[in-house]
Design a protein that fits this description.
The structure holds 2 protein chains of 2 kinds.
Chain A (H helix, E strand, L loop, with lengths): L4 E9 L6 E3 L2 E13 L4 H12 L5 E4 L6 H5 L2 E7 L6 H12 L4 E12 L4 H12 L5 E6 L1 H6 L28 H10 L6 H12 L1 H9 L8 H10 L2 H4 L1 H4 L1 E5 L5 E5 L1 H17 L4 E3 L6 E3 L5 E9 L1 H6 L1 H17 L6 E11 L4 H5 L11 H19 L3 E8 L8 E11 L18 E6 L9 H4 L4 E2 L12 H16 L5 E4 L4 H13 L2 E4 L12 H6 L5 E6 L4 H10 L4 E7 L4 E6 L2 E7 H6 L5 E5 L26 H13 L7 H4 L10 E3 L2 E2 L4 E2 L3 E4 L9 E8 L4 H4 L1 H18 L7 E8 L12 H22 L3 E7 L3 E5 L5 E5 L3 E11 L14 E5 L26 H16 L5 E4 L4 H13 L2 E5 L7 H6 L6 E5 L4 H7 L6 E7 L3 E6 L4 E6 H10 L4
Parallel strand pairs in A: 8-24, 13-14, 17-32, 19-22, 30-31, 37-40
Antiparallel strand pairs in A: 1-3, 1-4, 2-3, 3-6, 5-6, 5-7, 8-9, 10-11, 11-12, 12-15, 13-15, 16-20, 16-21, 18-20, 19-21, 22-23, 25-28, 26-27, 28-29, 29-34, 30-34, 32-33, 35-38, 35-39, 36-38, 37-39, 40-41
Helix pairs in contact in A: 12-27, 14-16, 16-18, 18-21, 23-32, 26-27, 26-28, 29-32
Chain B lengths: L13 E6 L6 H10 L3 E6 H6 L9 E4 L13 H10 L2 H8 L4 E4 L1 H8 L12 E4 L7 E9 L14 E7 L3 E4 L4 H11 L4 E3 L12 E3 L5 E4 L26 H11 L6 H8 L1
Parallel strand pairs in B: 1-2, 1-3, 3-4, 4-11
Antiparallel strand pairs in B: 5-8, 6-7, 6-9, 10-11
Helix pairs in contact in B: 3-5
């Protein structure tokens, strides 16, 4: 038996940052490492470890004794370590560091929190599980200093090791079972297959040709577990989008029935086809085909764009879920065409309000879910690490709060990539083609049990027994290495095709790439693993992160391997592409799966579903308390009320500045961010992000503006309008900053509660009706504006079923939500900012208001009508084109779009950004004053114009009802003159700024 | 007496820009040298390790920003270990040859961990700790430039604004001997840039440090992110006009090209 040394290194910070205060206690965090060496020279190893783990100037290492003094003084000590098999990035880096010195070491990292203050053990345990660790992936210990000392932790060192039970083997799954047993099989294995689908599989295996083929290949007549699992992943809602492809019988509010053959083909792809035809545009290079949509907005380079959601994983482990979400969508870009460089990230979150447990009462919250505040913090940190550590700027996003996201948060992650048009060898970068004979390489990380059943799990409602293996933590460093390797291999022309190993793992990536050549054959035993004992089906479907699959022509294999070595990327040759029409999987030489690609990808019968739209739906509360609608104050017709309303709205969570959070995203790495999240000296909100393309190989002045829009509250009143508001807001955001409305592409991301009628979801047909209406609204506005959809994604089972803290059953379904992301061509010489630039400039409102405050932010705080403002698509797009022309002619000083909160909020934001005042006089408004000042009708801009350009401006916008509101001033206040009975009022700039910047504290 | 080893009148000085293992800003850093009239090559650290002698063919080096090794175990820590373990003397020889070196953000952290800043020939006297507010931040900081600093890179530079993007940027000087170290740094003119207001708790608002020769500079703000007005924080009427960050790169290239006619300056950097 070989002896080994084990050392625990505890790192004490001598120059620790300011002490963290949580729940009235002082918290001191320190980290530690458990290291197991294969040699025994402890003194040498200790010295070496000290060099690795500490900066001697500001840190002290403890390897024996009591550890840091702070631990002794604590009331409780919380120790957190990862559970076996969970990705441990600090440990990986430490092991690599020992490797640099020629030392082989296994490492595990951990954290200690010394909690000082008046706190009980129970409270410390709650704090640990909620604030400092996630019991799903981490082991938590709570100790008094005496107990902690008695652990003899410097001598009793145990690293977490994965011990898998059972011997890896290929099983045969008999489908000769009763219906109930088949349904149970689907449930037990987390297959998410319906009974009809399993029967479809069973019929295939009874097909004469299949029977003969299997006999010839010496395969069992019944499917193997590997085959069943591959089929389940490939047919999951997550991968196959069965609902969007379904045949739908739709009944509208007048009782008229119509048949829709695939929402996707009819309304999404249909809109883009229609626009392409009607406008004759030539800049759509690849849409709905690849991992991302590819467009040409620049004379030298192409751009690709994609957004994804990662809702279920983020509900279970907010940090890991969001981190893998952002890294996952980055890989979609890396795997788009022959590969693109990610140049910008976007992120949009829909959360329950952080103070919901207070306003609703903690006893009414779901018992087994994380608190909204923790989800917010975890998701935010995941996106922060994912973007920052990968060196991709996060340039645009939004955070939307509503209590219906308390069951499942929505985490949308988007990425824009840039690719050359052609490689040196003449191949178009937008196209890929694996050929028979090409080798299959898997690159990136090794396979573990993490992320088993991610695709099928996210195709089910979240319940209290969600599998922990569905959770993964990303590794930005491995992905960064993979990224630079991939781009260099691309430029050297070393591979013929590439794709991301995302949902479904190898089963999806190889299964899909096999379609290019007509077959693939792999050996699972050649895949690198994190630990032994994984079942062959697990190797096939694991979603272990940071992996991509390449097809490499045999003549390039040597160069491919050499390049991988330079970049420190692990690559493994796991098989080859072929053209016999089968996906063949071996495990240690034995066939574990052989599936007809046509059966796997094209045979699934279309789902048939019913959908109904009966008009507006009243909001149903999911909780027991608060069912009685809260009485909201009535608006009053006086200046004091306007002032109160404005300040209330500026501090409302959906409007208040998110600067505290957004500043933690690196938004300027790559040195090409032209419009940043905050504008002007006063850090007002920007309407969108803009990336300058010259640093990425584009033309000198070329840029893109990137924005987003969503209006989930409208989905209850009218989903048709919700889609239109989402599109209009996204387009408005990119146009107001200088984007060209005629060169703008859109992404659609649908997140829906389960729209399939069942015992669980009796109103599934209504939810599907909402989806139909949304798609119709989306089609109509996209075709009216001429803005094509180029990529999208849907997530369909955003429901939570569980119990509240009093043991009562609760079901929480999200608001039906459509996120629209827009990217438009722009020119850095003609972009606009939202902040007022010069005192003396005239302030104008462009675009007509429409009456109605329904679903507005105002309506969340004050009693009002429930009428959503109408939208005039034709007028809006005409205005956007005129506005863009004005940008091109540089006749505007600033431009800001009217969105949440309406006119006065937009005005306050432009003032805050520019650190300017405004003198406004409104003597007659067509609507009521509250509608006019706080309405959120689409299609409106607040602009400022230099007196020099006034005549040209008014002339240019004739026909768009430019309404001169007043002037930008040097007085640091808003002076507002309204008709009787409102009268005159002033609000100090710093009062508005304080409300906007300092209210959203968590 | 030491002599100038730098070949003066080099028409297009060439910089090595180190990449790999999580370094992120290599492309924009290389671009900065090129826009300033020099040449730059991005070299993966593993390529450099395979052939350390190639360092000789470069006139200067840049360690760009990023998250080397994911910033695990402390920012810059592992990259510094790797350089020391596997490049060792080659790297030190390079700096000893009076070739200019810049470390930006993560690169600054590496130079400090390597012991090259602030005093290459003495024991470590500075460290970069986690910001006093404990968080990563991306914001533009107003910087005060010290016109009397020996720093070659910042020579003649006025007060400027540059983006900062870090979590571990708080300068800490040798605990217990802070004042003494600080006095030496001030006396030697080794603090070319300070934050105009305290943004992270850095000792005496230090934003950048150079070695006593002024050739090795480490700074937390990102000059390579402000080479053109197009990436300025605020709107600019001519976005293709040069940004304030370019001057650092121009200064050093001018020196390598032998265009620096300030005799006193030459002597200062040469000895």
């Amino acid at each position: 038996m070989t002896t080994s040394a084990k050392i625990r290194f505890e790192i004490e910070d001598l120059a620790a940052p300011d002490v963290q205060k949580v729940s009235g206690c002082d918290i001191r965090k320190t980290s530690f490492y458990l290291v197991e060496f294969d040699t025994t020279d402890k003194d040498f190893l200790q010295q070496h470890g000290c060099d690795i783990f500490a900066d001697p100037l500001i840190q002290k290492i403890h390897m024996n004794g009591k550890g840091a003094d702070a631990l002794d003084k604590a009331a409780y000590i919380i120790e957190v370590t990862f559970r076996p098999g969970v990705t441990d990035n600090p440990a990986h880096s430490a092991a690599e560091a020992f490797g640099l010195g020629g030392i082989t070491a296994s490492v595990a990292s951990g954290r200690l929190y010394a909690v000082s203050g008046d706190i009980t053990r129970a409270a410390a345990e709650t704090l640990a599980a909620e604030e400092f660790a996630n019991p799903l992936i981490e082991k938590i210990g709570v100790y008094t200093p005496e107990e902690f000392s008695a652990l003899n932790r410097f001598d009793n060192i145990n690293l977490p090791h994965v011990h898998l039970q059972g011997t890896p083997e290929i099983l045969t799954i008999s489908l000769d079972r009763s219906d109930a047993e088949l349904e149970q099989l689907s449930l037990d294995r987390c297959l998410a297959l319906t009974l009809d689908e399993i029967k479809h599989i069973d019929r295939h295996y009874h097909d004469n040709d299949v029977v003969a083929h299997r006999a010839k290949k010496n395969l069992p007549a019944q499917p193997t577990d590997v085959e069943i699992e591959i089929i389940a992943q490939s047919w999951s809602e997550h991968c196959k989008h069965k609902i969007f492809s379904a045949s739908i019988s739709y009944t509208d509010e007048k009782g008229a029935r119509s048949e829709i053959n695939s929402l996707y083909k009819t309304y999404i792809k249909g809109a883009t086809k229609q626009i392409e035809k009607q406008r004759g545009i030539d800049w759509l290079i690849s849409v709905f085909e690849d991992n991302a949509g590819i467009v040409r907005f620049d004379g030298k380079i192409d751009l690709c764009i994609k957004a994804e959601t990662h809702n279920s994983p983020s509900a279970l482990d907010p940090y890991g879920g969001a981190l893998t979400g952002i890294l996952g969508v980055n890989r979609d870009i890396l795997g788009c065409g022959l590969g693109a460089l990610p140049i910008a990230n976007t992120d949009v979150f829909c959360f329950a309000p952080p103070d919901l447990p207070v306003t609703l009462g903690a006893e009414n919250m779901p018992a087994k879910l994380k608190e909204p505040k923790r989800i917010f913090e975890g998701v935010h940190l995941g996106v922060e690490d994912g973007g920052n550590k990968s060196g991709i700027p996060t340039v645009n996003g939004a955070i939307f709060f509503d209590q219906d996201y308390a069951g499942k948060p929505l985490v949308f992650c988007g990425t824009v990539g840039v690719m050359p048009r052609k490689l040196d060898d003449g191949r178009a970068v937008a196209e890929k083609q694996a050929k028979a004979g090409d080798r299959i390489f898997m690159a990136g990380g090794a396979i573990g049990a993490d992320g088993i059943h991610g695709a099928t799990f996210s195709s089910l409602a979240l319940d209290e027994n969600a599998p922990a293996t569905a959770v993964q933590i990303g590794d930005p460093l491995t992905q960064k290495r993979l990224t630079s390797f991939l781009l260099e291999a691309r430029d050297q022309g070393l591979y013929s095709s590439v794709t991301d190993n995302g949902a479904g793992g190898l089963s999806s990536s190889i299964g899909e790439m096999a379609l290019q050549s007509g077959g693939a054959e792999i050996e699972l035993a050649h895949c690198p693993v994190k630990y032994p004992g994984l079942q062959p089906y697990e190797l096939m479907i694991s979603e272990s992160q940071e992996r991509m699959s390449f097809s490499v022509p045999p003549e390039h294999c040597a160069a491919f391997l050499t390049l991988a070595k330079i970049h420190g990327v692990q690559v493994s040759d796991i098989g080859f592409f072929k053209d016999d029409g089968f996906l063949t999987v071996h495990y240690h030489g034995k066939i574990a799966a052989e599936l007809d690609l046509d059966f796997l990808h094209n045979s699934l019968p279309q789902m048939t579903l019913d959908a109904v739209w009966n008009g507006a739906i009243a909001r149903k509360t999911w909780h027991q308390e608060g069912a009685a609608a809260q009485k909201l104050p009535q608006p009053e017709a006086n200046a004091g009320f306007i002032r109160t309303a404005l300040l209330t709205l500026l501090g409302a969570p959906n409007i208040a500045s998110k600067e505290k959070w957004v500043r933690r995203y690196d938004h300027e790495v790559q040195a090409a961010t032209h419009i940043k999240p905050f504008s002007g000296k006063g850090d007002g909100p920007s309407d969108c992000g803009a990336i300058w393309l010259a640093p990425h190989g584009g033309e000198k002045e070329s840029a893109v503006t990137i924005g987003c829009g969503l209006a989930p509250r409208l989905s209850l009143t009218d989903p048709y309008l919700m889609a239109q508001y989402a599109v209009d807001e996204a387009l408005r955001n990119v146009v107001v900053s200088g984007g060209d409305p005629d060169m703008c592409c859109l992404l659609d991301n649908f997140c829906w509660p389960d729209p399939v009628k069942s015992a669980h979801t009796p109103d599934g047909d209504i939810k599907l009706g909402q989806l139909v209406r949304t798609c119709q609204g989306l089609y109509d506005i996209c075709t009216a504006y001429g803005t094509p959809l180029v990529s999208g994604k849907d997530s369909m089972k955003n429901d939570y079923r569980g119990k509240d803290h009093q043991g009562r059953d609760i079901t929480i379904s999200i608001l039906p939500t459509l996120l629209v992301t827009a990217m438009a061509k722009a020119d850095i010489r003609h972009t606009e900012r939202s902040d007022f630039q010069n005192s003396g400039d005239f302030i104008y409102l462009l675009g007509a208001n429409h009456a109605g405050l329904g679903a507005s932010e105002f309506a969340q705080h004050f009693a009002t009508d429930n009428i959503p403002p109408a939208i005039d698509m034709e007028k809006n797009i005409t205005l956007y084109r005129a506005y863009h022309e004005a940008c091109q002619n540089n006749i505007l000083s600033s431009g800001h779009d009217l969105a949440d909160g309406g006119l006065l909020v937009a005005l306050a934001e432009s003032m805050i950004g520019g650190n300017k005042g405004a003198a406004i006089e409104i003597m007659n408004a067509e609507q009521s004053m509250t509608d006019f000042l706080f309405g959120e009708a689409a299609g409106r801009f607040l602009v400022s114009v230099s007196p020099v350009h006034r005549a040209v401006f008014e002339d240019h916008f004739q026909g768009h009802s430019p309404l001169r509101l007043g002037k930008v001033t040097d007085e640091k206040e808003l002076s507002l003159k309204l008709p009787a009975p409102y009268g005159q009022m002033t609000i100090a700039l710093n009062e508005m700024e304080d409300k906007w910047k300092n209210t959203l504290s968590l | 007496m030491e002599k100038h080893i730098i070949p003066l009148k080099n028409a297009q000085p060439k910089f090595l820009v180190l990449a790999g293992d999580g370094v992120n800003c290599e492309r924009e850093t290389a671009a900065a040298f090129i826009h300033a009239g020099g040449a730059a090559e991005i070299v993966h650290i593993n390529q450099l390790l395979e052939n350390p002698a190639q360092l000789d063919s470069y006139d200067g080096m840049a360690l760009p920003g990023g998250f080397s090794f994911g910033d695990e175990l402390g920012s810059g820590q592992l990259l510094a270990l790797k350089i020391r373990a596997q490049l060792g003397d080659v790297f030190r020889d390079f700096t000893a040859q009076k070739k200019p070196v810049i470390g930006i953000c993560n690169g600054f952290q590496v130079l400090v961990r390597l012991g090259l800043l602030p005093f290459p020939n003495e024991s470590r006297a500075a460290a970069l700790a986690v910001n006093n507010h404990g968080e990563f931040m991306n914001k533009w900081a107003d910087l005060e430039s010290d016109s009397s600093s020996v720093c070659l890179w910042t020579k003649g530079m006025k007060d400027i604004s540059l983006p900062v993007r870090h979590k571990e940027g708080r300068i800490v000087l040798t605990p217990g001997a802070e004042k003494q170290v600080y006095k030496t740094l001030v006396k030697n003119g080794q603090i070319p840039l300070r934050y105009a207001t305290d943004i992270n708790g850095s000792y005496e608002r230090i934003a950048a440090l150079c070695d006593p020769s002024g050739l090795i500079l480490g700074m937390m703000p990102h000059p390579e992110a402000f080479i053109f007005q197009a990436t300025n924080k605020t709107r600019h009427s001519n976005p293709l006009e040069k940004g304030a960050g370019l001057q650092l790169f121009e200064n050093t290239l001018r020196y390598l090209k032998g265009e620096e006619n300030d005799q006193e300056g030459l002597q200062r950097h040469g000895t």
